[in-house]
Amino acid sequence: QVQLAESGGGLVQPGGSLRLSCAASGIIFNNYHMAWYRQAPGGQRELVARINSGRSTNYADSVKGRFTISRDNAKNTVYLQMNSLKPEDTAVYYCNAARATTNYWGQGTRVTVSS
C-alpha cells in the first residue's frame, strides 16, 4: 500500500520559515518524480516545486528564491524548505509522487502565514 505522509505544517508569522517533509512508503522512491502542490482556500491546486528522479528541480514563479525542494532517497523523503513566508503562501500543501501515468497524493498539511 502506497503512503505519502506529510508533516511540518503549522502557523507562522510573515517572514518566517517552515520545513515540510513527506515520507513515502510502498513505492520504489528513487524511480519517482516528487513534487509539492498547494491549494489555497477557494483556489485550485497548483504546483509549487518538483524534483525529478535525477534531482533536477523546477519552481512556481511565486516561490522562486524563497522555497527549496530536496530529496533524500536513503530516507524515502522529500522536503520543502520555505523561507520568507507570505500570507499568500497560506494553503494546504500536498505531496505528490509521479511516474509515467501513475500519481499518488498525500493527505496534505496546512500552512497558515499570519500575524
Describe the overall structure.
The chain is mostly beta strands and 115 residues long. Helix content is 0%, strand content 54%. It has no helices and eleven strands. Strands 2, 4, 5, 6, 9, 10 and 11 form a seven-stranded mixed β-sheet that branches. A four-stranded antiparallel β-sheet has the order 1-3-8-7, with no helix packed on it. The termini are far apart. The relative contact order is 0.32. The model has no long low-confidence stretch (mean pLDDT 97).
SSE run: EEEEEEEEEEE
Share in β-strands:
over 45%
Described by strand count, sense and barrel closure, the largest sheet is:
7 strands, mixed
Subunit arrangement of the protein:
single chain
Distance between the termini: 40 Å
Class from secondary-structure proportions: mainly beta
Question: How large is the radius of gyration?
Answer: 13 Å
Low-confidence stretches: none
Nearest-integer average pLDDT: 97
Number of strands: 11
| Shape field | globular
The helix count comes to 0
State the helicity in percent bands. Answer: under 10%
In short:
The chain has about 120 residues and is mainly beta.
Topology at a glance:
Elements: E1 3-7, E2 10-12, E3 18-25, E4 33-39, E5 46-51, E6 57-59, E7 67-72, E8 77-82, E9 91-99, E10 102-105, E11 109-113
Parallel strand pairs: 2-11
Antiparallel strand pairs: 1-3, 3-8, 4-5, 4-9, 5-6, 7-8, 9-10, 9-11
